[in-house]
User: Fold these one by one.
Assistant:
Number 1:
Amino acid sequence: MKKYSFIFSALLSAVIFCGCGGNEEDFAKLMLKAKDSMAKGQVKEALTYSQKAQECQPNSPEAIVMTALAYERNQKNPEALKEIQKAVKIAPKNYFVQYTYGRLLYKNKKTDLSIVALKEAVKLDPKKTEARELLARAATEAKDYETAMQQYHALINDPSYKNKDVVYNEIGVYYYLVKKNYKQSSAYLNKALNANNKVQNPTILLNAAVLCEMRKFYGAAQVFYRKYLSATERDTSRAKKRAAVNTRLSGLSSKQPARSRNRASGRTTRRR
C-alpha cells in the first residue's frame, strides 16, 4: 500500500484556527517558522517553534497538531500521541486532527483505537483517501474484514485515487484468505497486475504466484515467481523471501508435465 506523508503545506488551512489570546502576528510567524523548519528537515527547530506557538496560544489546535508532528519527526512517538490527544479534545470535528490521531495510534500499535479515530475522520471528510486507506489497513490487521472491504471498495470507486493496484491486491487477498473464493481472488489480482502497466508491484506478483500454485496452475506460478525475482533482483531487504521463492521454483519444476504447465500459463496470460 502508499506511504503516509505529513501534509505540511496544507496544515495552515486544514486545521481549525483558534484565537484564544496571544499575539496573532507572533503566533503566525512562529507557525510559519515551524512549518518551514519541518519542510527543511530541521525537526528540533520545528519542535521548538511549535512549542513557542503553543505558549502564545495554548488552545490552538493548529499549534498542537504541529507540535505532535514535530515530536513524531523527532522519534518521540509517545509524546506525539499524548500531544495530539489535546487537539482531539479541543477540535473533535476536525478531519486532520482525527486523521493524525488515528495515524499516530496506529503507529503506536493501538490498532483498535486507531480504527475508531479513522472512522471518525472518514465520516468528517469522505472524499479524503489517506484516512480510508489507513482505516482499511488497520481493520484488516484487526480482522475487521467488513470495515476493510468497505473502505477498499470506496477507494476503487474514487476517481482521484491513483494507486488502485494496491487496493485490488488487498481485495484479492481477502477473497482468497477469508472467503475462499479463488475465482474472485484471481479476478482482483489480475486487475492489480494490469493497474500499473509500467512497474508491477513485487508483492502483487508474489501473491499471484502463490494463488496460482494453490490452484495448481504450476506453470503460471513459475512465471509469476520468476517475475518477482526479476523485479526484486537489487532489493537486498527481500533476500530471505527471494531464497524461499527459489526453493519453491525448484519444487514446482517437477510437479507437472510441460504441456500442462504451458496450458496453465497460457490460461493465466489470457485472463490478464
Note: The mean pLDDT is 85.
Number 2:
Amino acid sequence: MTVFSPFVRYSFRYLFLAPSGKKLLLLALVGLFLSSFSLLVLQATMGGLQHNLKKRSKNAVGHGEFVLFDQSDSFSQKIANALSQEGLLPLREYEIELLVRRKAYLSPLIVHGVEDSPKPPSFLEGLSAGGILMGADAAHKLKARPGDGLQFISPIHLDPVLGGIPRSVSDRIARLAVTEVPELDLFHAWVRDSKIHNLIQEVRYNKIRHYLGPSTKARKLAQKYPKKLLYFSWEEIHQSLVWALNLENTVMLALFIAMALLVSISISSGLFIFYQKIHREMIGFWIMGAGERQLIKSCRLFIHLLALSTCALAMIFALLFLESMDYWSPLLMPDIFVDQKIPVRVTFPHLLLSFLIPYGVAVLFSHLSLASFKRRHRHHLTHLRSFGQ
C-alpha cells in the first residue's frame, strides 16, 4: 500500500485544521481563487460585449460581401441563386455615394439600392413599400424626420442638358433606421433598387451581401469566378476592429498572468513554510517505511490537488455569479451606451483559460518551492539525529 493517500489526507487536515503555521498559504490560496474567479468573470463580460458588437455589425452589413466586376443583372442573379442554395441569405444591392439635399442642408451620403427580398434583414423590413430608410444620426444631421422629402444628387452621372447637369431623384423618408452601428447610422441610407436604377439609368448591382454564415462557402463560390468578383468576409472588412479586439484580449490575459505570478510567489513561500512545519511528520512517514521518492510524489500530488480544488471552486462560484448577474441584468451603463446591461457570454475557451492559467502558474511555482525544500532537507537521518541534541 502506498503512502500517497495517508500523507495527502494528513497534509489537508493540517492545512485547514491546525491552529497555526499556514496563514500565508491560506492567503495565497485566496489569491489563487480570486485570480481564477475574476479571470472568468472578466472574459465572460468582455466576450459578451465583443460578441454583441460583432453581432450588431453583421446584422447590418452581413457576414461578408461580394464586390462585382460583372455588374449585370443576369450574373448577379446567378451568384445570388447559388448563395441561396447554400442557405447564406444573399441580398443584391447597388451602393453609391451621393449628395443628399434637404432645403438648405447638403451632405454626402452612402445610399444602398437594395432589391426586394422575401427575407430581408430586420432593420430593412418595410423597405419594399417604398420611401427612404435613413440612419437616425444621418437624419439628425440634416434635421430631417419621417415624411420629409430628400433629393439625391449624383455628381458622376450627368444629363447632356445645358452642358451636363448632375442627375437627381427625390423621395420621402419612410422611417429612421437604428442599426446600433455608429458609422452606418451616421452616413448611410437605403432605398429600393429601382430608385438607384432610375438615377444611373441602368439595371446593375455592384455588391451582394450574405446575412448568414459560414464565410467558407461564399469564398469557395468566389474562387470559381476570380475575374468577375472578389469576396471579403466581415473579419477582412473590419481588420482594424478585429485586431483591436484581439489586442484587448491579449493584454487582459497578460495582466492576469502577471497577477497569477504574484499570487504564485506567495504560494511558493507559503508552501515552503508549510513543509518546514510538517517536516517532522514527513520524517515519521519515512521511519514507518515510506521512501523519499514516495514522499516527494505525495507532496506533488498534494500540490496538484490543492491548486485544482481551489481553481475548480473558483470556477463554480464564478459561474454562479455570472448566472445571477445575467438573470438580474442590472442597468449599469448610461443611455449613451448601446449595451446598458452587461452581457454575459461564457465559452469553453473562457473556462479553459480561466482554469489553466492560474492552475498552471501555481503548480509551476509550487514545484519550484518543493525542489528548494528538497535540496535543503536532503538527508532525513541527519535531521532525525538533531532531535535529541
Note: The radius of gyration is 33 Å.
